[in-house]
Amino acid sequence: MTGREVHGQGTAARGAAAQDVTTTRTAVAGEVLPSRTLPISRDDLRRYAEASGDHNPIHLDDDAAQALGLPGVVAHGMLTSALAIGVVAEWAGGADRVLATSFRFAGPVVVPVDAPARLEVAGTVKKVADDGSTADVALAVTCDGAKVFGKAIVTVSLAG
Q1: Long-range contacts (CB closer than 8 Å, 24 or more residues apart) made by 30-34
Q2: Chain centroid to CA 64
Q3: How far apart are the C-alpha atoms of 127 and 134, rounded to whole Å?
Q4: What residue ranges in the chain does DSSP mark as E strands?
Q5: d(CA 37, CA 39)
């Protein structure tokens, strides 16, 4: 082997070892997560419909949505909740830290034709396990000032 090959293997080994390193996050009840504003466009809805197989016309066609009493096309509930969960996952250290979720929908996210809807996501740590291993994060999610979820709790692992 040449020196270059040995060096390359060493670098790869160090990279693999670095990926195995785990981290532990600490949290305290009352801690406020960084708030995020997340845009949701009509293109996002079309892509989500293709990926999920949920082609319900209320998510894709204004006439169909309005025929059911909605003001226009609305975002998929699962898309909206996934975006909100992503804010907590990022704070916790990754999607693999999410252990459980509980959501109650309170209102739709209407997505205009000409601009994205803006999902406002704020979170607060409500409870930390006695051993510090998990935390429950309560989310306040709104769009245009209206509540999207009546209840939104994401439980995360704090240990890596």
Answers
A1: 30/124, 30/125, 31/124, 31/125, 32/122, 32/123, 32/124, 32/125, 33/87, 33/88, 33/91, 33/122, 33/123, 33/124, 33/125, 33/137, 34/91
A2: 28
A3: 8
A4: 36-40, 98-105, 117-128, 134-143, 146-147, 149-157
A5: 7
Angle between the N-to-C axes of helices 42-52 and 77-92, in degrees from 0 to 180, rounded to the nearest 10: 90
pLDDT in tens, 43-74: 999 999 999 999 999 999 999 999 999 999 99
Can you tell me whether residue 131 is helix, strand or coil?
Answer: coil
Cα–Cα distance between 26 and 48 in angstroms, integer? 34
Q: Rounded to whole angstroms, how far apart are CA atoms 50 and 125? A: 34
CA distance 90 to 82: 12
3-state helix, strand, coil in the chain (%, to 5): 35, 30, 35
pTM assigned to the model:
0.84
CA atoms of 36 and 15, how far apart (whole Å): 31
Tokens of 159: 């240990």
Give CA angle at 95 (39, 58), nearest 5°: 40
